[in-house]
Amino acid sequence: MSVVVTGATGHLGRLVVEGLLDAGVAPDEVVAGGRRTERLADLAARGVRVAEVDYGRPETLAGAFAGADTLVLVSGSEVGQRVPQHRAAIEAARAAGVRRVVYTSAPHADTSTLVLVPEHRATEELLAASGLVVTVLRNNWYTENYVATLQQAAGTGEVVASAGDGRVASASRADFAAGIVAVVTGSGHDGRTYELSGDHAWTFDELAAAAAEILGRPVTYRRVTPDEQRAALLAAGLDEGTVGFLVTLDQDIAGGALADATDTLRTLIGRPTTPLVEGLRAAWQESSRQS
């Protein structure tokens, strides 16, 4: 089995590469792809093949994908550019003779109104029309996304959001990476679409309680209106685009877009997913080490 993992210079992609090695895939059967290959030197030292993979430069893709059986297509990080970038990767995979693609999508990408969904829905449609064998992993939210919220709470004692009583069925990146590894190394996953999430959909009151436990100080959840949230974020210096995204995301959460907790991920990985406080504490400690 030869596997190409895109986005290996990012958090999720690197965890997938490391997980494949831990699962017994031979290092020379794994290609770690990313824009800045110097960040992959430690993986190369372990025998992993390293290749430049830049969705925005399709000429980098053919050589990286050549000879691969499976492409783990970690979705791009550039909102607004994902569809053409993913199209280039899918076309390169077909040209290189790749048999299957494992794609990291978004929850209920075929029906959801979540702000991030349209690009993922379009990518799923491209994959369906590609003629390739496809497994779609619709990942819920990463617990690590709330490290910035924890940083704010450390200084203010508050988690501030306009998400109301909405719930988030998050899991850690390590959980989602383990799910990818299980699909790549297992059987029976071709042509399947999986809704993946943490075992528990938590509220923002629970997020505040987790923050309090990690920080060792009282933390409360302060509900604000979307207009109040927008004004506060603009006053903090965020640009209009980012503010619009964050406010819309909270409204999506309030509407239940991230609330669907399934047991699919825990079944794939053979263990419970990481609880909120554990995942957030690990992410907080990692962030503190890097700062």
- Please count the beta strands (DSSP E, at least 2 residues each): 11
Query: Main β-sheet, in a few words?
Result: 7 strands, parallel
Shape descriptor reads globular
Cα distance spanning the termini: 39 Å
Strand content: 15-25%
Assign a percent range to the helix content. Answer: 40-55%
Helix and strand string, N-terminal first? EHEHEHEHEHEHEEHEEHEHHHH
Class based on secondary structure composition and strand pairing: alpha/beta
What are the segments in which pLDDT stays under 50 over at least 5 consecutive residues? none
Total helices: the number is 12
Strand order of the largest sheet: 3-2-1-4-5-6-9
- Average pLDDT confidence is 95
Q: Radius of gyration from the CA trace?
A: 19 Å
Describe the structure in your own words:
With 291 residues, the chain is α/β, with parallel strands linked by helices. Helices cover 45% and strands 15% of the residues. Strand 4, helix 4 (82-96) and strand 5 form a beta-alpha-beta unit.
Overview features:
single chain; 291 residues; two-stranded parallel ribbon; 11 strands; globular
Helix/strand layout:
Elements: E1 3-5, H1 11-22, E2 30-34, H2 41-45, E3 49-52, H3 61-65, E4 70-73, H4 82-96, E5 100-105, H5 117-128, E6 133-139, H6 147-156, E7 158-161, E8 167-168, H7 173-185, E9 193-196, E10 202-203, H8 204-215, E11 220-223, H9 226-235, H10 240-254, H11 264-269, H12 276-290
Parallel strand pairs: 1-2, 1-4, 2-3, 4-5, 5-6, 6-9, 7-11
Antiparallel strand pairs: 8-10
